[in-house]
Design a protein that fits this description.
Number of helices: 13
Radius of gyration: 18 Å
Strand order of the largest sheet: 2-1-3-4
Largest sheet: 4 strands, parallel
Structural class: alpha/beta
Distance between the termini: 29 Å
Mean pLDDT: 90
Order of helices and strands: EHHEHHEHEHEHHEHHHEHEH
Number of strands: 8
Shape: globular
């Protein structure tokens, strides 16, 4: 019996994992691996490669296209979840927020759908069921970047819990805030990210952390560019830290 319906985020697929050339699996493979080890089954909806939360259209001022995509994804999720019996999990905080908005705007017929971020699902359902790994080595210090979407979703406590499970010390730089990447703005106007992350980037470089984690692929790209460090999804690093040796 599936524990959840899993909708992998488009951005994680399009941009690929950080350090793909070094064999990094990406958040989808890592999340699925964690769930397998916890004894949880995920159901991926049929036609998932044609589903999206609609944010790329709404953020570009194309409301009709956004509405059409949101209607498609809500219909698919209602079918996959058997009318809302199962939660819907997404693995990028901005896309999770987009799905929440899609469900909210879809009318009373979609009210039964429950959308949660993979960070919240993993902290509540996966982490307590992970079998202990003899000789597991926790990361000494991890730098954590909460995102705008994880803050609005209320996911930062879960994000901190996952980071705490993989590291001896978790540091959120005091100068942290929005990275300024804002979807694709950081690609079109890199000066926005450079300005928004100046203070935080200096703090991260001074910290000298052993790992750098967040929960949204474009934010990870922005922070990697700003700091020169390799930011990855927290679930990728957690999977590595808890995997059997």
């Amino acid at each position: 019996e599936p524990a959840a319906v899993y909708l992998p985020a488009c951005v994680s697929t399009m941009f690929g994992p950080s350090g793909a050339d070094a064999g990094s699996p990406g958040v989808q493979e890592s999340f699925e691996s964690l769930c397998r080890r916890a004894g949880l089954t995920l159901l991926v909806p049929d036609g998932v490669d044609q589903l999206c939360c609609g944010t790329p259209w709404s953020s570009k001022g194309l409301p009709q296209a956004a509405a059409a995509m949101r209607a498609r994804v809500v219909a698919a999720l209602l079918e996959a979840t058997r009318g809302g019996e199962l939660p819907v999990v997404c693995d990028a905080s901005s896309c999770t927020e987009g799905l929440v908005e899609a469900v909210r705007g879809a009318g009373p017929g979609a009210a039964a759908l429950r959308v949660v971020d993979a960070v919240d699902f993993a902290a509540e359902h996966v982490l307590p069921l992970l079998p202990p790994v003899p000789g597991a080595r926790r990361v000494p210090v991890v730098a954590l970047h909460p995102t705008c979407s994880s803050t609005r979703l209320g996911s930062n406590d879960a994000l901190g819990a996952l980071a705490g499970a993989l590291a001896e010390e978790v540091v959120v730089p005091p100068g942290g805030g929005c990275c300024g990447f804002a979807g694709d703005r950081g690609m079109l106007h890199p000066e926005l990210t450079a300005s928004a992350t100046g203070r935080q980037a200096a703090e991260v470089r001074d910290l000298g952390a052993d790992a750098h984690v967040s929960c949204n692929r474009t934010c990870e790209i922005g922070m990697s560019r700003a700091t020169g460090e390799r930011y990855r999804h927290v679930l990728e690093v957690l999977d590595e830290a808890t995997a059997p040796r």
